[in-house]
Structures are given as C-alpha cells and as structure tokens.
Design goal:
With 304 residues, the protein is α/β, with parallel strands linked by helices. It has nine helices and nine strands. It has a six-stranded mixed sheet, sandwiched between helices. The chain has a three-stranded mixed sheet with strand order 7-8-9. The longest helix is centred in the last third of the chain and has 18 residues, at 257-274. The radius of gyration is 20 Å and the shape is globular.
Length: 304
C-alpha cells in the first residue's frame, strides 16, 4: 500500500471475531446484544444455531464482524452434526480473534474439547464467562477465573452477562485493540450478511424450537416458498419440514392450535425484526431422512 496517508487521520480497525463454545452457553444471545439487534435465534435447546451468521458492529473507528457458530458437538455421526463441527473449525481458521464462551462456574468435557479445537489454530483467544448473573456466590468467581487462566494463554478473561448486558461495554473496549488495523469491510449501517428471507425462516424455527421444548427432536427445518412484499404487507409462505408423521402431528397440535400459536409468535417476531406487517402461512410436511443425508443438506442450504 503506497497510498499517501493524508486522508487517514483516524486509524480504523476491522476484523472478524468468532463466537465459539459448546451449545447453550449464550453465544447467540451475546451476538444479538453486541450488535444491538436480534439477528441470531436463541433458545434453551442446543443446536438452535445451525448456520454461520455474521453480525456487524461498527463504531466510529472500529468494525467488529462477529461470526456466530453452532456449538461444537461431542456426538459425531449424523450428517448435520458433522457439518456443524466442520463449520466451527473452518470458521476459527478465518478469523482474527476468537471469543471463547463458557458459562457460570462450570468447566466441562465439552468446554475442554472446544478449547482443544481452538488451540489447533494460532489465534488470540478472549475467554468470556457468561451468565454471571446466575452465580449466587460471587466470591467463587475470582478463583474460577484464576483456574481457567492456567488452561491457555488467553488475551483476556472477561465475566459478562449477555442477557443483562452486564460488562459488554468493557468487552467492546477490549476487542478493539485486538483487531488488526484496516479499512471497514462492510458499510457502517449493515448489521448482518443474511437476507430478511433467511431471518424469517430462522424466526419460525426459533418459535418451533421454543414452543415444542423436548417433544420434538432437532430434525426440523424451514423452507420459505413465497416471500413477497405487497405495499406495506409482507406475504410469507413457509414449510416446516419434519422427519416423521408423528412429529407432524405434534407440530400441528389439537385442532391446529400448536401450529397456530407458533405461527402467530413467528409473525410477531418478523413484524418486529423486519418492520413490516406480515401475513404468514405455515404448512408442515414430512420429508424423512433429511438431517442424515448430505445431498438433502446441500439442497437446503446447509453446506456451502
Ligand atoms: P448458544 O447455544 O450458545 O447460542 O446459546 P443461546 O444464546 O441460544 O442461549 C442459550 C440460553 O441461555 C437461552 O435460554 C438464553 O436466554 C440463556 N442465556 C444466554 N445468556 C445468558 C445470561 O447472561 N444469563 C442468563 N441467565 N441466561 C442467559
Ligand atoms: Mg446459538
């Protein structure tokens, strides 16, 4: 770069930051708070996040491009799990900084496994202890931080609460110097690389996951068949794909009550996120074996 530097009065920084950690520690919740907008769906169930999602936070002199990843899973085997693990590892290779998220005062075998994956790539790692709001005996936090600090040469160890927004300002300030100097890669007003159509499908999946709790295994997906803005109303037709006829029955519920309630929650979520009135039509369809078939995964957009 032999450009004269006369225009660069402020040195900007810009970089990719991966959010990694086992399922359910709060990565997606954290991302939504860091970019002040809901772009990644969250729930109590593991495997809620299936795709790599970018969330962009632009400050006057710094652009942080967060990459939310699905949790790393111990159980191997099914194609969907394999794709999720591969996504995580290849994501770490591409970023400038890793935010490794753990929760409360726990350190599990799954955390250990994530750390080992991270260590295969030489990148600075910032350790985030999330959900500190749930630690009743705060005196235990410091010794826990000291124990964790012996496991790896972390750039920082920061206790936060993603849900309550506790200490996220501190985190933001710590991130900046860890990013490489350089121009912004995205326009300052862009918050994600995902289309609103993708967000709509994800919101439906979020409501299904939340409302059905443990009744339904992970094997559901959502396909958007129609997505059309007509004046100030957005018309969305969506298919919820399940694996077995029994799952379809559960999803629809008695006299269609379950599906209706999922639909109205999803519609409200879309109206809030997309800023438009929404007419949503939902169908449930059985397409067996999709989560274990690479080709089906590809056609549904789970692989690049
Ligand atoms: P992910 O699988 O790591 O992406 O986790 P999610 O972001 O989906 O969050 C999993 C669950 O933890 C959700 O029910 C969140 O509401 C909850 N959660 C996330 N952050 C916090 C936090 O700081 N405090 C508390 N109490 N709960 C949290
Ligand atoms: Mg997630």
């Amino acid at each position: 770069m032999s450009d004269s530097d006369t225009q660069h009065e402020v040195e900007t920084r810009c970089g990719y930051v991966a959010l990694v950690g086992r399922p359910n520690v709060g990565k997606s919740t954290l991302l939504n708070h860091l970019i002040h907008q809901k772009i990644s769906i969250t729930s109590r169930k593991p495997q809620t996040t299936r795709h790599r999602i970018l969330g962009i936070n632009t400050l006057p002199d710094c652009q942080c491009i967060f990459v939310d990843t699905p949790g790393l899973h111990l159980q191997k085997g099914k194609a969907l799990n394999r794709v999720m693990n591969d996504t995580v590892i290849s994501t770490i290779k591409d970023v400038d900084l890793v935010l490794f998220v753990v929760e409360r005062l726990t350190w599990t075998e799954a955390d250990e496994k994530v750390l080992r994956a991270i260590q295969t790539v030489k990148k600075p790692v910032l350790l985030l202890i999330n959900k500190v709001d749930q630690i009743s005996d705060k005196a235990k936090l410091l010794p826990h931080i000291q124990m964790l600090s012996t496991l790896h040469d972390f750039a920082e160890v920061v206790p936060v609460s993603a849900l309550g927004g506790h200490n996220l300002d501190t985190l933001e300030a710590l991130l900046k110097p860890l990013l490489p100097p350089g121009p912004f890669m995205f326009p300052a007003d862009q918050v994600t690389d995902r289309s609103s159509r993708f967000m709509a499908a994800e919101l439906i999946r979020e409501k299904v996951t939340r409302q059905l709790g443990d009744e339904l295994p992970y094997e559901i997906t959502v396909e958007i068949e129609k997505y059309e803005q007509d004046g100030n109303v957005l018309h969305v037709h969506a298919l919820i794909l399940v694996e077995k006829p029994g799952q379809k029955k559960i999803l629809i519920g008695k006299e269609g009550e379950r599906l209706k309630s999922i639909g109205s929650a999803a519609r409200e979520g879309m109206e809030l996120a997309l800023g438009s009135r929404v007419m949503l039509n939902l169908w449930v369809k059985v397409r067996s074996g999709w989560s274990d078939d690479n080709r089906a995964l590809q056609s549904l957009g789970y692989m690049d």
